[in-house]
Amino acid sequence: MHKKLIPLLSFIFLLGIASCETEDSILSVDNDNIIDITIENKNSPRIVKENGSFSFGLKGNDFNGTTNEAVHFSSEDIVIAINLENHRQGSCDIQIKSDYNEVLFSKTITSNIIYSEVIKLDDYPEQVILEFEDFTGTLKMAIAEDDD
After folding, report:
1. Which of 145, 96, 112, 93 is nearest to 19 (CA)?
2. Are strands 77-97 and 46-50 parallel, antiparallel or unpaired?
3. Residues 6+ apart with CB under 8 A from 42
4. What is the fold, at CATH topology level, of the domain defined by 5-145?
5. Measured between alpha carbons, how far is residue 47 from residues 9, 29, 69, 143 in Å?
6. Distances from the Cα of 68 to the Cα of 5, 45, 97, angstroms
7. What span, in angstroms and rounded, lies between the C-alpha atoms of 28 and 130?
8. CB-based contacts of 129: which residues, under 8 Å, 6+ apart?
9. Vertex 29, ends 26 and 141: CA angle to 5°?
């Protein structure tokens, strides 16, 4: 098996386990340990940031808003995992930007999805922006440096 696929498949497996157990939690990557964090209230985004990782969770109910978070990554290679479940309406636009405001990654989500990918970006991620419009559903997202 390709060396880069092992961490990705492990990450996907753990994301799947956490999403099956409860929609009230997100995964966070902390010093290469994956931990489960509770999403406490509807329409209150939960964010966990460490150097080299970013986790986000939201139980939205007709939610409109933008989250704009500075992040610190020391690699251009990242693993991103997104899980949207119980989607009823609305959309979420996700962007990862460089320090120079260049869009390095962009994805619009309008339905239930389990998505993961190892991505080689053109620059270091410095900003994660999530924009929600009339969003009802549970979104969990984790971004981490790819160590391989």
Report:
1. 112
2. unpaired
3. 59, 60, 61
4. Jelly Rolls (2.60.120)
5. 23, 12, 9, 12
6. 30, 11, 10
7. 17
8. 66, 67, 68, 69, 93, 94, 95, 96, 97
9. 40
Q: How far apart are CA 148 and CA 2, in angstroms?
A: 11
CA distance 147 to 79: 9
pTM of the model: 0.78
Distances (CA, A) of 111 to 19, 44, 135: 16, 20, 10
pLDDT at 36: 57
CB-hemisphere CA count at 13 Å for 76? 7
Write down the pLDDT at residue 6. 44
Kindly report, residue by residue over 4-55, the tens digit of the pLDDT: 444 544 454 444 544 444 555 555 554 444 445 667 789 999 888 888 889 8
Q: How far is CA 44 from CA 7, 78, 125, in A?
A: 30, 26, 24
Using alpha carbons, list the distances in angstroms from residue 70 to 7, 106, 111, 130: 25, 16, 27, 12
